């Protein structure tokens, strides 16, 4: 049989399989009144409303909310952009400077346009975007999928999606965080896609961050609508809140991938509510979870200790790894948890987290973390910045203090 006839036979076989699959869907659709056809992705290439190419790796940057709440203005946003560059954070990949709630006047202008709050952003958002862009950074902004934002100091975008998306694009906005307050009881699965379409029509690639709080399991539908989706309620600057959110976000690990990421909320590192070790756990879990790394402290006045955490290049590299697979908890023994996930080049990242009250010896076993049992690895400690002298085979043990972690990248050598 010639190459061509073999190709034709294979093509025919593929078509038969596809027709059979379609037939099953149609039968199912008839049985469920059409729902089946809508929910199954028969044509995967068309399933994304959002195809902006912006989230190959999780976004990195800063957001005003965790530290400043509503107390924001154009001078502190500019100073923050300056500090992101002067501290070296920009070089490490932190590029979004994101303005959260409270940036606009409480009413729109006579044409229905958003107006920057005159008392705090007198030069307007376009001028701020120009300033931030000149530093090589990107500007993010905030709106809400309801009638007002959560602070109730400014309008939301419900009913104004097309207009607001065009306004943001005309200002040079690069990122939109879209909140879920005052939503008039309309489902997020109805409200959010309207803004997705509006952004796609606005003529500028804008990262779309769904801040839906996990209300309707956005991990299940977010990748078609946004570049990231909040899986949880707001974080607070405490160990309990942070670990609670980490647990909830881990549940959805299988849904994260390049183009769309689970978002367990912004970082609290540097805000003072946790110990140094706890912040290291926070940053490590966010990194292996492929979470957006959005700094939430005042970078204009940042302690060296905080910079050492946020600026750990090796941990950032895990977050930004091209494979884009979110790590999971692979083993829990009481308060002792082993988290692990694959990285590019056959490497594995392992995080040993001790949630308990006392120091413990912890072990990661190869069969739990996805390495063949006889593999010998080089184990690099990402917080000590050095490889273990011994090359472990079969397992790796480490002593981990209370509310602390050890983080390793394992590279098979034989
Ligand atoms: C701008 O905001 C910062 C941070 O909240 C504050 O310290 C500063 O006084 C504000 N400046 C103006 C001009 O309002
Ligand atoms: C770890 O592996 C070594 C051999 O490489 C073995 O001797 C040891 O018993 C293992 N430890 C645990 C806790 O499984």
Description:
The protein has about 425 residues and is an alpha/beta fold. About 30% of the residues lie in helices and about 20% in strands. It has twelve helices and 16 strands. The protein has helices spanning about 5-30, 35-40, 65-70, 75-85, 125-135, 160-170, 190-200, 240-250, 275-290, 305-310, 315-320, 365-370, and strands at about 60-65, 95-100, 140-145, 175-180, 205-210, 230, 260-265, 295, 330-335, 335-340, 350-355, 360-365, 375-380, 385, 395-400, 405-410. The strands form three sheets. The protein has an eight-stranded parallel beta sheet. Strand 9 (about 330-335) and strand 10 form a beta hairpin. The longest helix has 30 residues, at about 5-30. About 45% of the residues are buried. Mean pLDDT is about 90; it is low at about 20-45. One 2-acetamido-2-deoxy-beta-D-glucopyranose binds near residues 363, 393, 394 and 395.
Bound molecules: 2-acetamido-2-deoxy-beta-D-glucopyranose
Mean pLDDT: 92
Order of helical and strand elements:
HHEHHEHEHEHEEHEHEHHEEEEHEEEE
**Largest sheet: spatial strand order:** 7-6-5-4-3-2-1-8
Question: Which value, in Å, is the CA radius of gyration?
Answer: 23 Å
Strand-pairing-aware structural class: alpha/beta
| β-sheet strand percentage | 15-25%
Name the shape in a single word: globular
Distance between the termini: 43 Å
């Amino acid at each position: 049989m010639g190459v061509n006839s073999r190709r034709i036979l294979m093509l025919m076989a593929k078509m038969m399989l596809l027709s059979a699959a379609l037939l099953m869907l149609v039968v199912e659709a008839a049985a469920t009144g059409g729902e089946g056809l809508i929910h199954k992705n028969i044509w995967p290439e068309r399933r994304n409303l959002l195809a902006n190419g912006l989230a190959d790796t999780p976004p990195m940057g800063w957001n005003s909310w965790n530290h400043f709440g509503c107390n924001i203005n154009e001078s502190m946003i500019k100073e923050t952009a300056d500090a992101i560059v002067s501290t070296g954070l920009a070089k490490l990949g932190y590029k979004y400077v994101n303005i959260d709630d409270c940036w606009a006047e409480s009413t729109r202008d006579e044409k229905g346009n958003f107006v920057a709050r005159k008392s705090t952003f007198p030069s307007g958002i376009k001028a701020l975007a120009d300033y931030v862009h000149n530093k090589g950074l990107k500007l993010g902004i905030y709106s809400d999928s309801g009638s007002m934002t959560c602070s109730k100091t400014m309008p939301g975008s419900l009913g104004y999606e097309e207009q607001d998306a065009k306004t943001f694009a005309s200002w040079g906005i690069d990122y939109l965080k879209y909140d879920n307050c005052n939503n008039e009881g309309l489902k997020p699965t109805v409200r959010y896609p309207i803004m997705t379409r509006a952004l796609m029509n606005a003529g500028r690639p804008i990262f779309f961050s769904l801040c839906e709080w996990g209300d309707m399991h956005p991990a299940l539908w977010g990748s078609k609508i946004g570049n990231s989706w909040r899986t949880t309620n707001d974080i607070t600057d405490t160990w309990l809140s942070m670990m609670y959110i980490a647990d909830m976000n881990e549940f959805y690990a299988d849904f994260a991938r390049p183009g769309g990421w689970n978002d367990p909320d912004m970082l609290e590192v540097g805000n003072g509510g946790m110990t140094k070790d706890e912040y290291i756990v926070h940053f490590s879990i966010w990194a292996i979870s492929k979470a957006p790394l959005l700094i939430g402290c005042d970078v204009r006045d940042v302690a060296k200790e905080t910079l050492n955490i946020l600026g750990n290049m090796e941990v950032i590299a895990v977050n930004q790894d091209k494979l884009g697979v979110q790590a999971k908890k692979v083993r829990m023994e009481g308060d002792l948890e082993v988290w692990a996930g694959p990285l590019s080049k056959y490497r594995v990242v392992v995080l040993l987290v001790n949630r308990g009250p006392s120091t413990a010896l912890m072990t990661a076993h190869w069969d739990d973390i996805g390495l063949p049992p006889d593999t010998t690895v080089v184990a690099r400690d990402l917080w000590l910045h050095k490889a273990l002298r011994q090359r472990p085979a079969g397992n790796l043990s480490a002593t981990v203090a209370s509310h602390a972690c050890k983080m390793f990248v394992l590279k098979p050598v034989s």
